[in-house]
Specification:
Mean pLDDT: 87
Strand content: 5-15%
Distance between the termini: 97 Å
Helix content: 40-55%
Number of helices: 22
CATH topology of the largest domain: Rossmann fold
Low-confidence stretches: 483-497
Number of domains: 2
Oligomer: single chain
CATH architecture of the largest domain: 3-Layer(aba) Sandwich
Number of strands: 18
Length: 497
């Protein structure tokens, strides 16, 4: 490019472009070259993507180096769309096209009839536009109502009338999404949801570079990187994908959920909306045991037979639950005029609306209901995390206190000061809690959160009971009460008869 007063000036005509020494290359060559540069410089390829460095990312790198079209196969919430959208960072910052071209015509090898005609008429004076890499990405969510016209194009009678062309003339075509992605990346999410005839048209233009529009054969040797996403359940011979299209996709790359709670928690902290306007004067502190419990709930749900494995449990599950738990803690801090926002287990229970809509249930799950299942998952998850923190610590005196008939209710709207006064009455609870969680008695908000975590852990081990109102009591007394209720119900039924 020429320079004027130290500033690079981009060629504005085809003649200037040729004189600059610019050389065209295919989009796959371009992505491959830029990828090699990033790898040599040790740059991170996908920002904000955690847990894929040893699994998914190397396979994507291999596919791009091999110049393959590829598909990401995975359940919901596995960052497939985010990865696909970041592929634009492997494109050049800008590329030249024939000015006004609908299909990003390369001035050296124009694709469309209009581009070729423009070049023939104006020659070296043909105007050049420069398009940014972000404008070279086209994404489409596949739905059953998508047509060939949407993807490839259709005859435009108005163009024919205005230009005086026959309908069979290529100049009458209104191009669809795929031709408009020429010299760029074209992504289709949920590929198997495309109708069979659309899949046929897609693989034909991928392989042969031609397609029939309204019965007229059209040659479109597109230069495009094709990337797809799908659920593995649908992407099979028994699913909704046609095998010729499957055969033309170079690489099938499986995504996955985080391998452990710690990694999952790191992703959730990165994505959750926690830095909120209006937090001035407040200090948000999310205890580690709270964030790990939230992640463990998602892990329990993914393993539960009552939750549909084909849909999966998205990472958005954990993100939404953490955001809702923080919001409940925020509401409490505003009501009690406290300056610390520290989520508790009761705040996780308050986040039930963020859980129930994110789980597709099997028949057994539907029978007991999403809310009851979510509460069961919270109990099990808390039990797992509790054992990790308090293994070997004895809470016998605490349990005995409940067995003596004492009860404890910590309202999710009560201040930390009020809750500490109630917790002081429970033997060994505060003292035993301080040991593994490493905080002081002065940190009252965290103290309440930790004690409630312990109580929920004892409930998960069935050593104490938790009622529907969130109060804790003796497990043996709760069992007797339930038996009594059943007996009274049966007695009433006998009397009725």
């Amino acid at each position: 490019m020429s320079t004027a007063q130290g500033v690079a000036v981009k060629p504005q005509t085809f003649g200037e472009l040729k004189a600059s020494g610019y050389a065209s290359r295919s989009v796959k060559d371009e992505m491959r070259a830029n990828l090699i540069t990033k790898l040599r410089n040790g740059e991170k390829l996908f920002r904000g993507i955690l847990g894929y460095d040893e699994s998914v990312v190397p396979q994507i790198v291999n596919a791009i180096l091999a110049k393959h079209n590829f598909i990401l196969l995975g359940l919901r919430g596995q960052a497939k769309s985010r990865i696909i959208r970041q592929l634009t960072e492997l494109l050049d910052d800008e590329i030249p096209i024939i000015a006004g071209s609908e299909v990003n015509d390369d001035p050296f090898t124009p694709l469309s009839a209009n581009g070729r005609q423009t070049l023939e008429i104006h020659g070296d004076e043909t105007k050049i536009d420069w398009i940014h890499r972000d404008n070279r990405f086209v994404e489409k969510l596949a739905t059953p109502d998508v047509t060939i016209a949407d993807i490839i194009g259709d005859v435009d009678p108005i163009k024919a009338a205005k230009g005086g062309h026959l309908l069979s003339d290529e100049l009458t075509i209104h191009f669809g999404l795929l031709p408009r992605a020429n010299r760029g990346i074209f992504a289709i999410n949920e590929l198997p949801d495309l109708a069979g005839k659309i899949q046929v048209g897609l693989f034909n233009i991928m392989q042969e570079g031609d397609v029939q529009i309204k019965g007229y054969p059209v040659r479109l040797p597109l230069d495009v990187m094709l990337v797809f996403s799908a659920n593995p359940e649908d992407y099979t011979a028994r699913g909704k994908i046609i095998t010729p299209l499957k055969d033309r996709i170079g690489a099938e790359i499986m995504t996955h959920y985080p391998a452990n709670v710690q990694l999952s928690s790191e992703i959730t902290k990165q994505e959750a909306w926690s830095e909120r306007p209006g937090f001035e004067g407040f200090e948000l502190r999310v205890p580690e045991f709270i964030s790990e419990t939230i992640e463990q709930i998602a892990f329990e749900a993914r393993d539960d037979q009552r939750v549909d494995k084909r849909s999966g449990v998205s990472q958005r599950f954990s993100i939404s639950v953490l955001e809702s738990a923080i919001s409940n803690a925020e509401r409490r801090a505003l009501a009690t005029n406290e300056n610390e926002i520290v989520p508790r287990i009761s705040d996780i229970y308050a986040a039930l609306p963020s859980m129930t809509g994110k789980m597709e249930l099997e028949y057994e799950g539907e029978q007991i209901g999403a809310a009851r299942l979510a509460k069961d998952l919270i109990k099990r998850a808390n039990g797992v995390i509790f054992e990790g923190f308090f293994l070997g610590i004895d809470f016998e005196r605490t349990v005995n206190w409940f067995d003596e008939g004492n009860k404890l209710f910590l309202s999710d709207t009560a201040s930390a000061e009020e809750c500490v006064m109630l917790l002081d009455a429970v033997p060994d609870l505060i003292e035993s809690t301080l040991v593994p969680l490493e905080f002081t008695l002065k940190e009252k908000a965290k103290l309440v959160s930790a004690c409630e975590f312990v109580l929920e852990g004892l409930y998960a081990q069935n050593k104490i009971s938790r009622n529907e109102d969130g109060g804790y009591e003796s497990a043996t007394k709760a069992k007797r009460d339930r038996r009594g209720m059943i007996y009274e119900d049966l007695t009433d039924l006998d009397n009725y008869n």
